[in-house]
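User:
Can I borrow your eye for a moment on a structure tokenisation matter? Would you put together a sequence-and-structure record for a protein of your own picking? Please set it down just below, with no commentary around it:
AI:
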Amino acid sequence: MMAAAKKLVRLLMVVVGVAGPGAAALSMDYYGMSCPFADMVVRNVVSQALMGDPTLAAGLLRLHFHDCFVQGCDASVLLDSTPDNTAEKDAPPNKSLRGFEVIDRIKQALEMQCPGVVSCADIVALAARDAVLMAGGPYYVVPLGRRDGTRSNAADTVALPPPFLNATELAQLFATHNLNLQDMVALSGGHTLGAAHCANFKNRLATEAATLDSSLGSSLSSVCAAGGDGATATFDRTSTMFDGVYFRELQQRRGLLSSDQTLFESPETKRLVNMFAMNQAYFFFAFQQGMLKMGQLNLKEGTIGEVRRSCRIIN
């Protein structure tokens, strides 16, 4: 069974174009001898967390994305600020991140079983995968062996895509990470989970009436008028379920962020939106591919980085 899984991972790496030095260093059985129940520990803690609060699925997925797009998948997003350094998690784009306490609980459980073995970066990757699965999304393979970074600086979050980019700008940004158009649109489909603050879509309400469903616009305006920039609205109508509704909402011009709706308005990405809206299975397949590629951005491995004893501080 494990041999078949390893062959599948290698095949997928070739298919999605991530076979290379970093990809080769990861392995499905990386903790097979040193911490054989790591996967199960992660899944159990995530399951308990989502049973208590299903909205945490979005938080755990977003943590992984915000980690990987800044310096690669090295758990830098988990590090706390210090008196002489403002960490990534305290930068404006990350102020609303959630799920840190779930990662802490996973790490504590793993440290009891296998001290100093499982990296925080791998925990974040596994927790995101399990959150997606438990929300009704696809299972995808997560090769392991990432190491944790020792740098986390708020200034680096400039690498994250802001909510006002158009499709061309998004494509250029994703291309810097070797993610193609299909990857970009599929990964944007992660917005089938969760919500955004008014601060991130109030400009869309004011300037994009032509691409915004009028009833949704009125509803969102009321939410923001009542709650200010900190008020929230969900990305789609099934915000705790991982499904294709997000893309069908874009077709109805009910995208929450400018960077969501642009995917339908731009000819270069509209075809993919329509395809994913019509065929959820194909969206799931493309999302699996995109997550495999994103989860291997700028890896630290071997003697580079460390395995933190606490995900919030360097050793």
User: Anything to note?
Assistant: Confidence is low (pLDDT under 50) at residues 14-24. The beta strands are 195-197, 232-234.
